[in-house]
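Pinned message: reference record for Acyl-CoA dehydrogenases
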Amino acid sequence: MASGSCGPTDNTEDAVGLPIPESAHANPEEEQLIAKARQIAEEVLLPNAERSDQAEGPNRENFRALAEAGLLGIALPKEYGGSNVSGETQRAITEILASACGVTTFVQAQHHGPSRMIANGPNPALKERLVPELAAGRMLCGVSFAHLRRPGPPVLRAEPVPGGYRLYGTAPWVTGWGLMNQVVFGATLPDERFVYVWVPAHREEFPELFEGLTPPDGDWGRYQASPPLRLCAMNASATVTLTLEGLFVPEAHRLQFSDRETLRCNDRKGVLGGTALPMGCAAGAVRLLCSLAEKRPIPAIRQSAEHFTQELARTRRAIAEWNARNNEPDFFEKAVRLRAHAIRLAVRAAHAAVAASSGAANLLSNPAQRLFREAMFYTVQAQTQEVMAATLQLLEEETLEDLLPPPETSA
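Predicted structure (C-alpha cells):
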C-alpha cells in the first residue's frame, strides 16, 4: 500500500476502498451470492445500522432483503431450495454482513446451523415441510444448545417418556424470539448424552407434523419466555430465556444424538468458523477509520487506518491458510490463537475508531461506539474454555515495560 493511502491490500474492494473477503474457490453461483451480500451490506444494512442496533427487536426489513437475495439458505441443500455453499463462502458472506450491521448478522447466523440439522435429520416429513421454507427465509429457526458446553449440572434436561421426551429446565440465550417461529434445543439425557430436538413456538402452525403424535397422558407441558434480556451489545436481538416445564417433544422430532466429546471435537475442528463475526467487526472499524481519514486530515488517523487495513488483510490470509491445513498436527494450537487474535483485532480496530471519532463516539448515533460494543460481544460469543484461555493469554502479552522510566542513578 502506498504511504498516505487507505486503499485495499487485496484485489477486491468495496465502495470505500475497504479490503473485503472473497472465496478463493467459489463457483459462479457462490460468487453471485457474495456479490449480493456486498450489495445488501452497502445499500440496506449499513445505512440503517445504528437504527437497527437501537431498535426494540430485529429489523425485519433487513431480513426480507436477506431472504430475497437467497442468503438465508446458504447452508441448506439445493434439493430444498438452498445453495449449499462451501464453508469458505459462508464465512466470507458472514464477514461482509457483519462489517455493516452486527445485530442483523448475529441473529441471522442463529438460523443456519439448526436449519441444517433439520435438513440432515431422520424425518422426511419434517424436511419436506420445513426446509424449503427455511431456505427461502419464509420461516426462521432459532437455536439453544451453547449451554451444553457448560461444566456442572445441566440447565436443560430431557427425560425419555413413551413416544418422545419431556424437557425440564431453562434454555438461556434464545436469540430472535418472535422473529424465529421454531427452535432446535439441545438437552442432556439421564445417561449424559445430548439429544437435539425441533420445537415450534406454536404447534398450531404445523398441524400435519403433529398428526397422530400426542403425549401418553395428553399433557403437552409448557414453556415460558422471559422478557427480552437487556444487553449492552446486540440488545435488538430479541434474546430471551425460555423456561420449559415438562414440554413434550415427540420422538419424530428428534434430530440427532451426541455427547460431550463429540461436541468438544466439533468445537475444535470449527474453531476458525468463529472468526467471521469479529473479522467483520474489524472490517467495519477499518471502513470507519478510512472514512474519518478522508474527513479529518490528521496524520495519526490516516496512519491508524493504513495499519489496520494491512493487519486485517494479513489476518484474513492467515485464517484462510490454516483453514486449508486443518489436518496438520498443530492446527488447533495455531487456530485457537488465531481466533483470539481475530477477537483482539476487532477490539483494537473498534477502539481505534472510537479514538479517531473523538467525543462524538459517545453518541449512540455514532458507529464507533456500536462497533466497540459488538467487538466486546464477539469476545465471548460461542466461547469455549480454550478460546477464553487463548484470549486471556493474548491480552496478558501487553506489558508496561517499554513505558517505565529508567531507574534513577545515584549521583
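Pinned by admin. Summary line: The mean pLDDT is 93.
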